[in-house]
Structure formats: structure tokens, C-alpha cells
Design brief:
2 domains, single chain
């Protein structure tokens, strides 16, 4: 009779994840309030909607972001789970705080002589901030939730999904400004921001290959199946120095799952030997389709 394996869970509190969320939302708030808004550029996302309302009626962006995100939290809970909900609450709260903080500062607009350059810098900083938040399975709220819901069911990079959603929001700015030039500047900003998001995430669709050598290979393989829903292939190996046979796990996964795999293996066997490498493409169930 096969021995029952102990239950291992990835649902632990990792303070570095929340520190990353704080840094990401700080960068996002900095880019939006100090580089984009002073020059009246439009942008995408729920924050972009809040900025448009601010331009139109003058309501505080921080308050609008908080109210609109509160409505979307229910969606995050039902589809993306409780851990994501907690990180979303932290992300929304920190983003609202940082935006409110920057709005209260009466600073002179940055780079008044080069507004387009200011917009580009702001979009790079803001996009990098969003990428940092998404890299730890967090969210700053708004369209991040929509992006991750789509990404969960469709193998599309967050940057591309965000770009499509943001184009719709930026195009709607014509109702307020009646200016095609404003829309063009907005398209440039969201394109740079989307590229920055994917750059920080280092290509969320990029796949990785793991070779895991451990005496506890059965437990590791079982928990990778249960926790990450990834398959494992058990290979026969021989250590040439020790001349002992050893099982080797071969695991294919997405790059954004790498951290979870390392945490899982370390939680089971700290002495495990792990080799990770990038692969050009993986085709089959759970990955890309052969075309």
C-alpha cells in the first residue's frame, strides 16, 4: 500500500511579495501623477478612466480609483481566488494612498518644455510598476483584474490584453477633448506602458524547463500536480561519482510559475538539486498550439 504523502501548501505569507506590490504601486502613482497628468495626457486602465473624470469635473483621482476598484474586488474573489483578493486589496489601498499623497503635493510639472518626453518617461515608470505588481500575482486593481481573468483562460500576454482594453478607454477621451492629437498621444503612452509591462514580466508566455533531483521526488511530483496543475516526467539517472541510481523530474512550466516551483521544492527538500533553463517553445496541452 502506497504511503500517504503529507500535504504541502504554497499559501504562505511572503512579505517580499507585498514589498514588491508597494514598490510597484508607488512607481505607478509616480508616473501617472508627476509625468502624465500635469501635461493632460490620457492613458488606459481604470486609473485612466479616473484621470478623464478628473479632467472633466475635477474629482480627486485617488477617490475615484478607490470607489471603482471596490466594485471589481468581487470579480477578483470569485475567479482569481482569496490570495489574489488579499494582494488586490493591498495593491488598491497602496495605490490610492500614493496617488492621494502625490496629489496633495503642489509641485511644478516635470519637464514642461518636453511634454511628450515626460509622457514617455511616465508611461515607462508606470508600466514597470504594473509589471512588478503582476510579477507576484498581485494587482493594482482596475483593468489588471480584467487582464488576469482573460490571461487565466486565454494564453495572451498581459501587455497585449492591456493594450486592447486601454485603446478603447483612450479613444473615449474624444468625448471630452474633441482632439485626435490627444488620442494619438494617448496611444503612444499606452503602447509604451504595455511594452514596459511585458518587459518587466520578462515575457509571461516564455516557458522554462526544470530538472529536479531529490530523494523526495515522489512528494515533489505529487505536489507539483496538485498545487500547480503541471505534469512531471520521471527519468532514470545515475550519479557518475556515487554510481547510484537516482530519479530525475522533468517539469515544463511557464516562466511566471518558476517562483512557485522553487518555493514548493524548497518547502519539501532544501537539499534538492534544481536546474532551470529557458526553452524556445513548448507545444501541447497546457502550452502553445502547433500551427
Amino acid at each position: 500500500m502506497m504511503e500517504k504523502l503529507p500535504v504541502f501548501s504554497l499559501k504562505k505569507f511572503y512579505w517580499k511579495d507585498y514589498l514588491t506590490i508597494f514598490l510597484g504601486t508607488f512607481m505607478y502613482a509616480l508616473g501617472v501623477t508627476q509625468f502624465i497628468m500635469p501635461h493632460h495626457f490620457v492613458m488606459g486602465g481604470l486609473t485612466g478612466v479616473a484621470v478623464l473624470i478628473n479632467y472633466a469635473v475635477g474629482w480627486p483621482v485617488s477617490v475615484l480609483v478607490f470607489v471603482m476598484n471596490a466594485i471589481l474586488l468581487l470579480v477578483a474573489f470569485r475567479i482569481l481566488g482569496t490570495e489574489f483578493l488579499l494582494k488586490t486589496i493591498v495593491g488598491v489601498a497602496s495605490l490610492t494612498t500614493f496617488i492621494g499623497m502625490f496629489e496633495s503635493f503642489q509641485w511644478t510639472p516635470i519637464m514642461t518644455e518636453e511634454p511628450l518626453m515626460a509622457g514617455l518617461i511616465g508611461s515607462i515608470v508606470a508600466g514597470a510598476g504594473v509589471g512588478l505588481v503582476l510579477s507576484v500575482n498581485g494587482s493594482s486593481g482596475g483593468t489588471d483584474i480584467i487582464v488576469l481573468v482573460i490571461n487565466k483562460y486565454r494564453n495572451i500576454t498581459p501587455g497585449r490584453t492591456m493594450l486592447f482594453v486601454d485603446l478603447v478607454i483612450v479613444a473615449s477621451s474624444y468625448v471630452i477633448f474633441r482632439s485626435m492629437e490627444t488620442i494619438v498621444f494617448g496611444v503612444i503612452i499606452i503602447a509604451v506602458m504595455a511594452t514596459s509591462v511585458d518587459w518587466v514580466l520578462n515575457g509571461i508566455r516564455q516557458s522554462v524547463q526544470f530538472f529536479i533531483i531529490s530523494q523526495k521526488y515522489e512528494e515533489i511530483a505529487t505536489q507539483i500536480n496538485l498545487q500547480l496543475h503541471r505534469g512531471c516526467t520521471v527519468l532514470d539517472g545515475t550519479g557518475w561519482y556515487t554510481k547510484r541510481t537516482q530519479k530525475v523530474l522533468l517539469v515544463m512550466a511557464r516562466r511566471n510559475e518558476s517562483t512557485s516551483i522553487f518555493r514548493l521544492v524548497k518547502g519539501i527538500d532544501e537539499n534538492a538539486f534544481i536546474s532551470q533553463s529557458n526553452v524556445i517553445g513548448i507545444y501541447g496541452q497546457g502550452f502553445d498550439r502547433m500551427k
